Amino acid sequence: MNKIKCAVVGTGYLGKFHAEKYASLPDCELVAVVDINEAAAKAVAEKHGAQALTDYQSLLGQVDAVSIVVPTTLHHAVSKDFLIHGAHVLVEKPITVTVEEADELIALAKQNNKILQIGHLERFNPAVLGLDKDEKPLFIESHRLSPFNPRANDVSVVLDLMIHDIDIILALVDSDLERIDASGTAVLTKDIDIANARLVFKSGCVANVTASRISMKMERKMRLFRPSSYISVDFQNRVLTKYKTGDKEMFPGIPEIVNEESVFENGDALMEEIKHFVHCIQTGDNPIVSGEAGRRALATALEISKLLTQAGTDRRL
User: What's the pTM value of the predicted model, to 2 decimals?
Assistant: First the structure.
């Protein structure tokens, strides 16, 4: 089988790791990396024996697959060009700036019979992959807290951090939304830095989602309450704990509660994500995080952002 000719557009913090993964895969050939910063592109290209470019358009029609790791405002234009010219696209989250842009990319991928995968990396966390889907959740609570990082402030905390949990929750619940309530505020930036959203689904499930990029500690946890079990997911430490009733009694007539804890090795979620992208290219399978999944997460995040803006929560504390 011929190797898949790959490229990476954007060699910033995350883009250089995309390049590293493609270069290490036996089924792929890293043809080129692109960045408007010529020195940054050369540094990554020389490390992996690839071509360094400053204009991605010279690659159109020359590669089979591409990772697009550029600012969100450029996702639509760059992805569109590669899809039109016959390349499979893995674009970082969020898929685009608007739902209309996302719809156009989804349509183009279908028209050209190409894979469109969205880089919601947390879906490839081993703790998430190990989560059984035996029961639908009745209530979900998630906290994604991080110290301030000036690197990721081109979008609000909703589109930066909360969208990870939104994407996972939408996949787990698999029901239309009935109502969203939201509150939050700006603290260190001009955009929302801390937010909470309450998602009410038509199935009856309720999700309470909190995200902060101004916390003093790092925490990434989700708790799922189901009819016969309670599950705790620690994304950061890759620990999955399941609580359920046992065969014995804790008190007369009251069953005991037993737990099963799974601690996963420090896996490489980005490598698994890119391997999955390559697998879908080779087999035609639908990606775990399809364009449609990325669109739904974006639409929900944008609705939360709209509610926050309407509430006047862009004021500072």
Answer: 0.92
